Amino acid sequence: MKKLPDLEAWAIFATVSETGSFARAAAELGLSQATVSKAITRLEGRMKTMLFHRTSRRMSLTESGHAALERAARILAEGEAVEAEVTEQSTSLRGPIRIAAPMSFGVSHLGPVLPEFMARHPDVVLDAHFSDELVDLVAQGFDLALRISTLADSSLLARRLCTVRILLVGAPAYFERHGRPSHPRELTGHRTLQYSYSRGGSSWRFRHKRHGEFAQAISASLLANNAEALAPALRAGLGLALQPEFLAWKDLQSGALETAMDDWQVEPIALHIVTPPGRSRPARVQALIDYLAERFAAAPWAQSG
Questions:
Q1: 288 in Cβ contact with 144 (< 8 Å)
Q2: Architecture of the domain delimited by 164-269
């Protein structure tokens, strides 16, 4: 089996050659003189040739040592350069960040807050991936992701930002034509619109402070794998839907949509920032995490807890 080159020993060799002694090289590298001596002996054993002429008074390079010096010095310089570059990228706000987010939330809420972060940190390059499919952060090389759900993967590190209510909403015109339901069982007489990835599927679950839980099966007239795609049909008065408050917020404020069954609650969801396992992350990634946490925790639709 092919043996890896002894890069550490070659770096020590280059330093010994530069300083002219084992003692000075050991001091410069923060190593013991014995460690330096063993590294040179190890190299000479592997090369089956002497690299230094040693006497009690002086030390000089052999012909083989001279032949190896330029490349050994390059190994040392390249090693120092790569460590310096990686250290700079991990401690300064410079370099790429890959972030994943659900489609609707990414377009409506993540996208609008990114310009301010970009203006603050012009040397950071953002790569945003929007999809309602659950991405594998490790396999796909993401630095962080926004998740709006109950988290199942305990190997990920999660930071909870806020709670998001799920509201039953419809257009005023719809309620005028079909009435406003006051109990989940009344939904059987209403047209409904359904987000395909809804936790309860075709069964909508509600909780009441006095009456407890109630699940109602629904038959949707529109199914969509993106919750924002339901909005045009909602505004057109074509049905009711359970929507996260961050999607319905503007329409509720403008009056384009209204809520129903306010005393019946749907289990809320939570907005999290998740990162791959391992607590050490570049400063640029931590800066984006802190920035997003501050922005989204203060959003008008965000609930504490």
A1: yes
A2: 3-Layer(aba) Sandwich (3.40)
